[in-house]
Design brief:
single chain; Immunoglobulin-like; globular
């Protein structure tokens, strides 16, 4: 199976909003540790993403991942996944490809 490709422009903040669910039901993430990294094709760390949890009482399962500065990320394909840890049991998503492309409009 081919990994999903997400296109992103270098220099633009990387923001991903998600809902963790099991059997299509959102899971309250209280007590979970979520981590996520982006790596190049050689396995070198490009970014540790910042995790921001939504209020799990009103928005169970919702969180966001972000990196404000992508200006130094190398163009091309990067690998990315998300790791959920609860009760010492890790669940890791499929690996996604971030295809980093050059922006057209430059700051003036």
């Amino acid at each position: 199976m081919e990994p999903q490709i997400i296109y992103h422009k270098r220099g633009s903040a990387f923001v991903f909003q998600a809902t963790y669910s099991v059997s299509n039901l959102p899971v309250n993430l209280d007590g979970y540790v979520i981590t996520s990294q982006i790596r190049d094709s050689e396995g070198n760390l490009v970014a540790d993403l910042v995790v921001t949890m939504a209020d799990q009482g009103t928005a169970p399962g919702q969180y966001s991942l972000n990196c404000d500065d992508t200006t130094e990320w190398m163009l091309g394909d990067l690998r990315w996944d998300i790791r959920y840890l609860s009760d010492s049991r890790p669940v890791i998503t499929e690996t996604l490809i971030i295809r980093l492309v050059r922006q057209v409009t430059e700051a003036t």
